[in-house]
Structures are given as C-alpha cells and as structure tokens.
Specification:
It contains 9 helices and 10 strands. By secondary structure, it is an alpha/beta fold.
C-alpha cells in the first residue's frame, strides 16, 4: 500500500515538473539562438553588379526592407561584442549586424541614403593607405561626413590589406614580425588622428588568420577580429575569429532568408 502511494506521489511530482522542464529547455534554446547573430558583410554597391563583390543598391534595399518587415533588429557591432564580453545583459530577439570592408566610395554615394532611410548602425573596416589615395576609396573628409551622421563606426582592416600567407613566405621571421606590427598598429594611430576614434576591432584581410596572427592582434590591442566564414557568429567561436557572411548580389530572396536563419 505504502509503495503504491509513494509511486503515485512520484508520478504526480514528475507530471508537475514536466512543464517546468519544458520551459527551461525553451529558455536555453532561446539563449542559444540569441547568442548566434548573423554579421552581414558588404563591400561595394552600384546600380549593376559588375563584379562578384558588388551588391546592387536595389538588392541591398531589399535586404533592409525584409529585415524591417520581419522583426529583425540591426544592432551595432560594438553591442554584439559587449554582449560576448558580458558587458551588457542581452540582445534583442532576431539581432543582425551590418558591416562593410575597404571603404569604397559607394558606401558614401549608394549606401548612405539607405542607412539614413532605415536609421541603421554600420561598422566600416578600413585600411588607411587607400583613403584619399585610391580612386575607388573614400576620402578622409567623406569618412568624417559619415561619422557626423552618428550611424557609422570605424575599425581596422590593417594598414594596406596584405595577404599574410604570401608575406610570410617572402619575409624572414624577424621581418615578418615587424611587418605584422606595422599592419596591425599603424592603422590605430592613423584612424584615431583622422577620425578621433581609436579602433579596437580588426577584419582579417581575405579572411586569413591563424593562432600566431590572432596573438599578434591581441598584443596590438584588438579585442575582436573577424573572418569571412559564412555562418552566424556566436560567443563559442572566440572573439579573434568571429565569422561573417560575405554577401554577393545573388544573396537575395530565399537565399537571404536562409543566411539569416544560419543556413547560408
């Protein structure tokens, strides 16, 4: 009799505990989902996609429209990193980050009007050797104009966008060490001098990195660095090798939806 009563009590306890367990599982799932955030990387914009790195202004506009209509929140890259560093308690559901590499002029001419229209934060990774020098790149005055809008943050893409694998083969260990110091440290002072803000994040040129390079970046003062692996970022990646989706013009419609869902 007593054994039967105990069994009934145990079954009742398990029955009552099931909703709680289910709720806890849902909370854990939601936490994992919020930890995984797509970082969308663009390079240049134009009316027509003349090359593989150009996203047409129309396609970019469709991306922003889709995000706005489907409950996504575009957050600053800084907020994502602060979340991974546990400096802020959480992120909005369906968070997305938008960044660009290289500081192409089309960021100023084509991207900026849409950034204003949707009031979205954007992080620019720039390599200073091109600014006010290369015909495809913005000028420092144009970057200062972007800064005044309040929508843009500026980070490092090294000093002149080298291929570290090729440079390592060409240079001896001591010379490569000096080369790394120049590429990682020189942009910090130059960007701070021109724009009044000192970078602490780095986009790896061509997505090339390894443990040695990551260590050098940390020594130079970077708290986060980014690759071009096509998957959502999460805190488990490690802050010096966070992935980004490098977007091309074909990433539209269902393909864009899959990227946001982590299926890209």
């Amino acid at each position: 009799m007593r054994k039967g009563l105990m069994a009934l009590v145990l079954l009742a306890f398990l029955f009552l505990a099931l909703p709680l367990a289910k709720g806890e599982i849902q909370q854990v799932a939601a936490k994992v989902e919020r930890d995984e955030v797509p970082i969308l990387l663009y390079h240049r914009f134009a009316p027509d996609a003349a090359d593989g790195m150009t996203v047409t202004t129309q396609v970019f506009a469709s991306h922003l429209e889709y995000l706005a209509k489907n409950g996504f929140t575009i957050i600053p890259l800084r907020r994502l990193i602060d979340f991974y560093l546990r400096k802020v308690p959480g992120l909005p559901p369906k968070s997305v980050v938008i960044v660009t590499d290289d500081a192409h002029k089309s960021v100023y001419t084509d991207m900026l009007p849409l950034v204003r229209k949707y009031s979205i934060p954007v992080t620019l990774f720039i390599y200073p050797s091109a600014i006010s020098n290369a015909t495809y790149a913005m000028t420092w005055d144009e970057l200062r104009a972007l800064k005044k809008t309040g929508f843009f943050d500026f980070q490092s893409h090294t000093y002149w966008h080298p291929n570290f694998l090729k440079e390592r083969k060409k240079l001896g260990p001591a010379d490569f060490e000096k080369f790394m110091d120049t590429q990682l440290r020189k942009p910090l002072g130059k960007i701070e001098k021109e724009l009044g803000t000192r970078p602490d994040m780095l986009a790896w040129p061509f997505g090339i990195f390894d443990d040695y390079l990551a260590g050098k970046a940390k020594e130079a003062g970077y708290i986060a660095a980014f690759t071009i692996e096509r998957r959502r970022a999460c805190s488990r990646d490690g802050l010096l090798k966070l992935p980004r989706f490098l977007l091309i013009n074909a990433d539209k419609g269902k393909r864009f939806e899959n990227i946001l869902a982590g299926k890209g």
